[in-house]
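Field reference: sequence -> structure
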Amino acid sequence: MSKNTKCMKQAVMIKPGEIRFREVDIPEINNNQVLIRIHEIGICGSDVHVYHGKHPTTDYPVVQGHEVSGEVVETGANVKRVKPGDRVIIRPQIVCGKCMHCLEGNYNICEELKVLGFQADGAGSEYYASDEEYLIKMPDGLSYSGGTIAEPLAVGIHALEKAGGVSGLNILIIGAGPIGNLTAQAAGAKGASAVMISDISANRLKLAAACGIDFTHNAEREELGSALIKNFGYKKADIIFDCVGSEASLGVCIKNARKGTGIINVGVYEGEILADMSKVQDNESKLSGTLMYTEKDMLEALALLSSGSIDYDSLITSKFPFSEYPEAYKHLDANRDAEMKIIIDLFN
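Structure field:
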């Protein structure tokens, strides 16, 4: 905290590749809000897109921080769900509550959706004020680091549900980064018959195997179609999840989908891409997108993390103190193959 106890430090991305610290007042909360002392912040692939100026819907300056965990230090008069001392995570979706999607409970695709760290300032500061409705209590025994993993894990859980469930099915995951790894682990925890994950990084595939994912496939060493038959049999994959978000990765999904296979896009694209829609049509592939999650998915993520069903510790490869937020991005750029999840630790 700043030497002035009424002030705090905040990290602001002024423009792509440039983060500056500024001293601002600690937020004052209203009757429906909660003041949180932020403990840990995760850096995800979408944050990296912002850092490189390649996120399609983010303007600058912006305060990042959407994978966060912290401690409640103050509550407004009307707050009922949490109290000082509670450990919480934040659902980082600001929604209108009035559009058709919100009224149907699908607020993750709200017509006016704003996400912390992208279209709205996030929690990249020592304290953050949040409306009570966006807070979820962490289970006892789950670390603050585990709390930051709930957000990306919820992305995978929502994608699995978007596919209609995976119990008893053979699942192919394209991309062994944090989202792909967590989606694969969640698929196994939710009863998939078998899960295969494909990537070009030997390090990430080694980690995936260590996390208990059934089959790993190195796309630079083995043809994917052959690996699918070897591991799953002639039926290949029942559902394919693209956890990369590129023209090449979607092309791999379309090429290797059997007729009638569902293809779910999870990764974030940096812009418009081309896709072989004639192949999608000929195969009657079920190509669909998935966006973020709802509170239900985050609660399930916390339950899986707390139960030990998900190996998240292995995914956290580095921690940086808050004062070295900019250095964390530079380190990630220089060590893409070795790094998975970098955490900003405000108590380091």
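Note: The longest helix spans residues 144-162.
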